[in-house]
Amino acid sequence: MNGNTPVLALQGVSKRFGPVQALSEVDFEIHEGEVVALVGDNGAGKSTMVKTIAGIHTADEGQILFEGSEVKISGPTDATRLGIATVYQDLALCDNLDVVENLYLGRERVGDGPASVTRSLDETAMEKRTHELLERLAVTITDVRAEVGTMSGGQRQQVAIARSLLGDPKVVLLDEPTAALGVRQTAMVLGLIKRLREEGHGVLVISHNLADVFEVANRIFVLRLGRPAGYFAVGEASQEQIVAAITGAEFGRAGNGQPEHEEEEER
Amino acid sequence: MSATGGGAVAAKPEVETAPARMDLVRRFIQGDLAELRVVLVLAVIWVIFYVQEDRFLSSVNLTNLVLQATAVGLVAVGVVLVLLLGEIDLSVGAVSGLCASIMAVLSVKHGWSPYLAIAAAVLCGTAIGLFQGSVFTRFGIPSFVVTLAGLLAWPGAQLKVLGETGTVNINDPKITGLVSTFYSDAVGWIFALLAIGAFAAVTLLGRQRRLRAGLTAPPLATLLIRVGLVAVVVLVAIWVLNDDRGLPLAVLILLGFVVLFAYVTRRTQFGRHIYAVGGNAEAARRAGIHVQRVRVAVFMIASTMAAIGGIMAASRLLAVNQSSGAGDFLLLAIAAPVIAGTSLFGGRGSVWHALLGALVIQSISNGMDLLGLETSVKFMVTGAVLLAAVVVDAITRRQRQAAGRV
After folding, report:
1. What are the phi and psi torsion angles at A23 (to 5°)?
2. In the predicted model, what is the mean pLDDT of residues B102-111?
């Protein structure tokens, strides 16, 4: 893959739920080794966009290109198979299982020989691989056999992200990974996101926290009322510009937003 | 015994290595040491009854106690799996009665060979589980309601199967022999040595494998102590059984199923999926686990084990009748694992709880019989014990949550 072909691209993607136009003509691209923050107000279509990429929703119009070729994503398994991993806000961890068991949930390693007939688990291989993965990601969990339910929010988020990496995906989608986390835990998770970038993954992060966004992202993609409202490089945009794009109060540039909508909102 | 012992070693090495000695109490309160708790309860019960009536700990009575516990224990094995899912199966008592009746009628009235009659009865159990599990998953009706319907319907089928006479006496020596067969002292000792050897081998080989893979492993001394404890328990049990009539076949059957399902739940992919579905069904679904398939399979296992337990109960009574599987049989089979620490909320528990809980429940019942207490008292005491167990389950759950665990 050379640097010019985006690993994932959306072209003119639209999604409608009944009378609600959730996404309209979204063009978007993300490259390998790049963190893109997806920002926007509530209801701007961030979740819809992520779910469309992850295969939960299918786009009504437009194309999705993966590594330059058009793909059809009609279910979560399609997305996974392509190499798109998603970590939702609720993390989907089993609290009664330990770290190793959660990482390998649904794709447990089974031993060779007779064990492959009885589907007996190869615990040592899984635990070893878990240690390697967590070490590579510099995730600080000392006891991989502790129940996930005993862990802090930041640790659980890290476990969920680490799990998404087990299939070696090209693109990782993170839905609000730092929401409801303390300062230290947020720093842990942001550090992990940076390491994903260093490893060459394309990372798309939904976030409400612009401080986090500016710390970790290379580019910022703004959605407003389902439409793209700007794609900024982090070095070249100020926080005010981003806020303006999110809210639509764009000074100095006219005709980009939907004034009718704004009036409605003001009333 | 080997399977779970080894599983505990492979799955929880940190139990020993963590600086956990001082928070032993905390873990006890939070329910991590449920087995220890139930062993203590069992010891207290035995001491109380022994003080009241010293025949309680005689080898004859202990052997009888174990034989009484087999039917409940076997049914409880299936109940554990259902509880691990966070579901419940109220039909296991009724299914056990129906399937035992089917076996008896096929054997006595139709002259089937005992093996075929037993196989047919067990398969009927499996089919009932398939039916109930399918209704539960297909229509999304709570398992409580589906199996409640079974609890009402299957005894009706049982009456039909038994016909007008109502009672069928079992005369086939193969079927009655399931409970009345005892092995010689030598066989008992050989079994004890094999069991201890297998447990030691699995425990030590599991440690070897972890060390070779560069993982942490519990210190050798801890494992040797554990093997030693198991050895003492097995040897004392065989000594007591040999002092009476010898090692019963029924105990081997019960232990066989417990070890089998302890292995399945702790060491196989299917077992892992059961815990996952019980812990967080939505997470399991998103991880690609066929949640509904796991649920149906577990309900099939539960009904199958109910059938097997019913057959053992019939073998011990030498008959089936209209009240086979009725009465408190269902409640005992559900109470047994709960008393031993399997959670009603799903995702937590062990197949060994079926065995331990059945021993506790049967000890109470047996002891009160020895003391000549009235049925009224027995019911109330058993109910109180069950209530206490459920309260302990709820408290430990709250303690876990208070400690930031779910």
Report:
1. -135, 135
2. 95
